[in-house]
Automatic annotation (TrEMBL):
Signal peptide: none
Xref: PANTHER family: NUCLEOSIDE TRIPHOSPHATE PYROPHOSPHOHYDROLASE
Domain NTP pyrophosphohydrolase MazG-like per the UniProt entry, residue ranges: 258-331, 400-457
SUPFAM superfamilies: all-alpha NTP pyrophosphatases, Tetrapyrrole methylase
Protein name: Nucleoside triphosphate pyrophosphohydrolase
UniProt keyword annotation of Phosphoprotein present: no
CDD domains in the record: NTP-PPase_MazG_Cterm (cd11529), NTP-PPase_MazG_Nterm (cd11528), YabN_N_like (cd11723)
GO biological process terms, semicolon-separated: dATP catabolic process; dGTP catabolic process; dTTP catabolic process; dUTP catabolic process; response to stress; TTP catabolic process; UTP catabolic process
Sorted UniProt keywords: Hydrolase
Species of the source: Ferroacidibacillus organovorans
Pfam families: MazG, TP_methylase
Coiled-coil region: none
Amino acid sequence: MLVGRLTVIGLGAGALDALPLGAYRRLLSSSAVYLRTDRHPVVDDLRKEGVLFQSFDAIYDQADDFDEVYTRIVEELLAATAKYGDVLYAVPGHPAVAEKTVRLLRERIPSAGHELVFGPGQSFLDDLFLRIDVDPVEGVLLLDATDLAAHQLNPRQHTVLLQMYNPMIANEVKIALAEIYGDEYEVLLAQSVGVAGQERVQRVPVYQLDRLETIDHLTTLYVPPSADAHLLRRQFHELRAIVSRLRGPDGCPWDQEQTHLSLRRYAIEEAYEVVHAIEQEDTDALVDELGDLLLQVALHAEIGAEDGEFTMDDIIGHLSEKLIRRHPHVFTEQAVLTSDEVISNWQTIKAEERRRKGTEHATFMDRVSRALPPFAQSVKLQRRAAEVGFDFTDVVQIYAKVDEELREFADAIGIDEREDEFGDVLFSLLNLARFYEIDPESALKRANLKFRARFDHMERVASEKNLEIHGMSLDLLEKLWQNAKENMRKAGNTLTDNE
């Protein structure tokens, strides 16, 4: 059995003449009338018509944020409905447009046992579209300025930001818009739309939004679509369209020929380029290299979509779900963990995922991924073996093993046997690196840098003597090499990738 009835109507854009007749009659006949706010142009006219009401403006002045405002308004409306049985609630504009209290009422009314009824109303959007000369059939984004995030914006669309009540909200809007459109992009600030004699529409750059003293509760912002190619190409969906075009019938022959297999080496190469940019602390290079790495993801996604296997949305969705699943301490009520506890929990969750997929580790060594680069995989295999005591007891044994493997390599016959024995040499050397806690990748990188720097020195010295290193005798090359070693030793150079 219903306890009471709560009727919600709209006060329109601001003129009494534009107030729907049905809404006007209910305002005159209702004994319990509540307004979300009396800061609305039509309210003074309603007073003159003898309408008695109670507003919730005091809550706006007392609450810390809008969520608290709306929650308290809803609680008071439910209490009033229970008390009076029949309550009229009037909101600015239309009940279904930009009304958070209405959304909350829809959620709360069933459990309260009341009936929720909607009456007429006119949205100011009707007048706004006339003023800015936009037909909404072209596609319009309607967004809440009080809760705006940059990722919601689409520069190809007409965008209307509602509820930009004050300069503080305008500041947050400015930051979000500047991230997508830039500081100088021009937008339209519309104020008191639908209120005769008070309407004002002005064009301003984004950076000025929070400097305008005229912003109030009747302010709306219109962001026109952009035709700036540079701006549009910053959007992720534009990248997907470009890659699709490259792979399409009129695209690039090279891109059209690529497959998942043919692109394998580029993923590794681009990942190394990213790491190099990070080590160089070169921000511009990092942006460029991350783009190249992202291109590999986009290409694989496009190939997957063409083959009917998967899409970019599948990749993003799978990643998002995995991140949420593996971070329960962030996305659920689980207590915040220490860093060590996070790692342990991560491993437990991964093990459960493998169990569900039926891909549990069949052997002790299966915990070491076969997809790892060879050096990293070797070290992890050795450490895994050491966990059960299968390891050298001292470094002397490792040196002996290195000597043994070198002799076996020297005695090897044929390319296959030599490759096999050379692998054993490397594996034993990596055991030595593990014992001394040396990162083999870093060590080899230093050796590469040293060789590069010395050879560059040889070339400079030869050039200073009007000599070409091409065709130079080995004896002379060796003298230049030793000279480079000695000069660099005296200089005490610290090698970097820039040398």
